[in-house]
Design brief:
- InterPro entries: Spore_YabP, Spore_YabP/YqfC, YabP_sf.
- It comes from Desulfotomaculum nigrificans (strain DSM 14880 / VKM B-2319 / CO-1-SRB).
- This is Sporulation protein YabP.
- The chain is mainly beta and 93 residues long.
- The protein has one domain: Immunoglobulin-like (Sandwich), CATH 2.60.40.
- 11% of the residues lie in helices and 57% in strands.
- The protein is built from one helix and six strands, in the order ββββββα.
- It has a six-stranded antiparallel β-sheet, with no helix packed on it.
- It is globular and about 45 Å long.
- The protein starts with 7 loop residues before the first strand and ends with a helix.
- The relative contact order is 0.22.
Length: 93
């Protein structure tokens, strides 16, 4: 995976989120968006969320809507699989 040099997250009034360092968008709907960033897996939760800008070449994303929370998780990817589990499965084959 390509690494981006900067990871920057800005929230404006819980209604607009700007993120730099995005590598992959896994899933998105009005209540949840899952992402892989250069700092790990990120889950955004909210209401009426829409991705208004996405540029994976630059690693930038803008989400508008009401942001209720965000959570970084280690050992997980936005593709839905756990990295550690995938590694173990490959080693045991």
């Amino acid at each position: 995976m390509e690494q981006y040099s900067q990871h920057l997250l800005t929230i404006e009034g819980r209604k607009k989120l700007k993120l730099e360092g995005v590598q992959h968008v896994g899933s998105f709907d009005e209540k949840e968006i899952t992402l892989d960033t250069n700092m790990g897996f990120l889950r955004l939760k909210g209401e009426g969320m829409h991705i208004t800008h996405l540029n994976l070449d630059e690693g930038s994303l803008v989400v508008e809507g009401f942001i209720n929370g965000l959570e970084y998780m280690e050992g997980r990817t936005a593709k839905g699989s756990k990295r550690a589990k995938g590694l173990m499965n490959r080693l045991l084959k």
